Amino acid sequence: MKVVVAIDSLKGSLSSLEAGSAIRAGIFRVYPDANVIVKPLADGGEGTTEALVQGLGGDVIPVSVHGPMRGTVEAIYGFLPEKKLAILEMAMAAGITLVQNDEKNPWDATTYGVGEMILDAIGRGCRDFIIGIGGSATNDAGLGMLTALGFEFKDASGKSVGITPKSLRKIVTVHTENVPPDLKDCKFNVACDVNNPLFGENGATYIYGSQKGVTPEDRAVLDNDIRHFASVTAAATGRDFSAFPGAGAAGGLGFAFLSYLQATLSPGIDLILDAVELEKDLAGADFAVTGEGRLDHQTAMGKAPIGVAKLAKNHGAKVIALAGSVTEDARACNENGLDAYFPILQGVSTLEEAMDKDTAARNMENTAEQVFRLIHAME
User: Fold this and answer.
1) HSE on the CB side for 262, CA within 13 Å?
2) Tell me: the pLDDT tens digits for 257-293?
3) CA 241 – CA 238 distance, rounded (Å)
């Protein structure tokens, strides 16, 4: 029997590989000679760096960079030297969790630290990048990141503007003389799970600005400033990505990647599954086991377990999902590739007890064992 295990982390409890290892142990209780392959899984958001570094054997690189409000923050990224690959989460440098509610100021928040992380990775020899851009505190259309990377944005008098949204309206020209030559050799694969354009009623500012502190009074002003930046960018690059799906992601950071770094924007789960080469391992598999902390109707809308299920079905494998908890509307997952799913709780407990690492691992292992005992009994 061949089983491929690719389960997302149970946030606050088990990492992807810890959950997968527990499932493998449960399967071995029933099928000690089974070929069980455990792969890391994430969706491009929080935990992606940890999952891929652990699963692919890379290093964690610490780096001090500017945070969203320009104070120093300690970030990390994944580094796989043999692949010249860096795995970044923009939220490490410009995430909304780095800003207290009373500190939110979208006019001053910057993505400068994201550019600093990229430069550090380039200095280590990285030329391929996987970058998750969810959870931003910024609405600067990537101005800060691009400035850190050497792009210069100047006003009508020829002076360089700043690195925050306050500077967007001042930009008249774009200069690339100080961009590192190595940057043109870099390939950026950006995990992006939204389809918003850069500006307008469905754009970055109108849809996501309020959670970053944009007031109703400032919304139109900031949106117009970003529209101006898009116009200058189109004139400078000869390309206009302002209406491209995902351009409005992370306060317009998607637009910056598309326009200046020739990036590819893809659903996070697609990028990760490709990076871990899951489809290669699924060839000839009898079963795929996936899951996440909470299985619900949102899972069915394309989250990590459904990505695994779609690939597994291409190879004729049955798909089983295990989760910390499931909701009644999780039945939608059955219509999207999951043949069956099971909660792992073994008895009545508090949330704190259920999320205890040892308890969760034991519950995961025991549930996997019982599922595969049923499979064995049906043979």
Assistant:
1) 8
2) 999 999 999 998 888 998 889 999 999 999 999 999 9
3) 10
Burial of residue 200, with CB atoms counted within 10 A of its CB: 0-12 exposed, 13-18 middle, 19 or more buried: middle
Strand partners, 129: 86, 188
Nearest-angstrom CA–CA distance, 62 and 49: 12
Structural domains present in the chain: 2-41+277-377 (3.40.50.10350), 58-268 (3.90.1510.10)
pLDDT digits (tens, 9 = 90+) for 40-64: 998 877 778 888 888 888 999 999 9
Strands (E), 6-91: 35-38, 59-66, 72-80, 85-89
Question: For residue 301, which amino acid is it?
Answer: M
Question: Do 330 and 294 touch, CB atoms closer than 8 A?
Answer: no
Beta carbons of 288 and 337 less than 8 angstroms apart: no
Return the sign of the alpha-carbon dihedral for residues 312, 317, 318, 324: negative
Please name the amino acid found at residue 293: G
Predicted TM-score of the model (pTM):
0.87
